[in-house]
Design brief:
Shape: elongated
Helix content: 40-55%
Order of helices and strands: EHHEEHH
Oligomer: single chain
Length: 76
Amino acid sequence: MANAITMRELQKLSATTIEKLPGAVPVQSDGRTVALLVPLRPASDEARARFRQALAKAQAERSPEEQAALDGEFGA
């Protein structure tokens, strides 16, 4: 795969091909970069554990007022 793909090439890519991309790839139209195609990959167990730890820490440090504001915003 080249360093960038065109809009025409993008239309022809399958999900399997996109998943196999080594990382983010610019999408170009008429020589201009108009988008960035980023293949999504599942997070590793270690990354998920770090996220859960950071979330638990943030929840423990949150004041009751902050929690109430979040509950109101996101409907607890």
